[in-house]
C-alpha cells in the first residue's frame, strides 16, 4: 500500500495550495497577502505542512477570498497547536475521527460545534 501524502489526504476535502499559489489567489482580496501568510506560518495560525521546502495550506480552513481562517478552525488550532507539530495537526484534520462519526474534521459536513468538541476530546486524550 502506498502511504498517503498530505496532498492526497486533502484531495477529497477541498484540496491544497502552496504558499505561492495561495499568495496569487488571495492577492485580489488583500493588500498585504505576503505579510498575512508569513504571520500564519510563523505563529502557526493556519493548518499547514511543509512539502518540498514550501508551506502548503489545505483550503477547507479558509473563508471566501482565502484571507481569513474560519473562526472554528482557529479555535481548534489554538486548542491543539501546543500539543502537535504542523504535520500532526494537518494529519488530524484529514483523517477520520471517531468523535465525528468517522468523518474527517476537515469534512464540510462537520459542524463548527462538533469540530471544536472533537478537538477538546483529542486534547484530553493527549494530555491525560
Protein model, in words:
- It is a single chain.
- With 128 residues, the chain is mainly alpha-helical.
- It has one domain.
- Helix content is 46%, strand content 9%.
- The protein is built from 6 helices and 3 strands, in the order αβααββααα.
- The protein has helices at residues 6-10, 19-26, 33-43, 71-80, 86-94, 112-127; strands spanning 16-18, 49-51, 54-58.
- The chain has a 3-stranded antiparallel β-sheet with strand order 1-3-2.
- Helix 4 packs parallel to helix 6 (112-127).
- The longest helix is centred in the last third of the chain and has 16 residues, at 112-127.
- It starts with 5 loop residues before the first helix and ends with a helix.
- The mean pLDDT is 92.
Identify the notable features of this structure and list them briefly.
single chain; 128 residues; mainly alpha; three-stranded antiparallel beta sheet; 6 helices; 46% helix; 9% strand
List the helices and strands and how they pair.
Elements: H1 6-10, E1 16-18, H2 19-26, H3 33-43, E2 49-51, E3 54-58, H4 71-80, H5 86-94, H6 112-127
Antiparallel strand pairs: 1-3, 2-3
Q: Whole-number radius of gyration?
A: 14 Å
Strand order of the largest sheet: 1-3-2
Number of helical segments? 6
Strand content: 5-15%
Low-pLDDT runs: none
The total strand number stands at 3
* Domain module count: 1
Distance between the termini: 33 Å
Shape: globular
Largest sheet descriptor: 3 strands, antiparallel
Helix vs. strand class: mainly alpha
Amino acid at each position: 500500500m502506498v502511504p498517503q501524502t498530505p496532498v492526497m489526504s486533502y484531495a477529497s476535502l477541498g484540496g491544497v495550495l502552496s504558499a505561492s499559489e495561495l499568495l496569487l489567489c488571495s492577492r485580489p482580496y488583500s493588500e498585504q497577502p505576503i505579510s498575512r501568510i508569513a504571520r500564519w506560518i510563523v505563529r502557526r495560525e493556519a493548518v499547514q505542512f511543509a512539502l518540498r521546502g514550501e508551506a502548503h495550506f489545505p483550503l477547507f480552513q479558509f473563508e471566501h477570498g482565502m484571507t481569513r481562517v474560519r473562526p472554528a478552525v482557529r479555535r481548534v488550532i489554538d486548542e491543539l497547536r501546543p500539543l502537535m507539530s504542523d504535520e500532526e495537526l494537518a494529519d488530524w484534520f484529514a483523517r477520520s475521527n471517531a468523535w465525528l462519526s468517522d468523518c474527517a474534521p476537515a469534512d464540510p459536513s462537520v459542524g463548527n460545534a462538533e469540530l471544536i468538541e472533537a478537538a477538546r476530546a483529542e486534547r484530553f486524550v493527549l494530555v491525560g
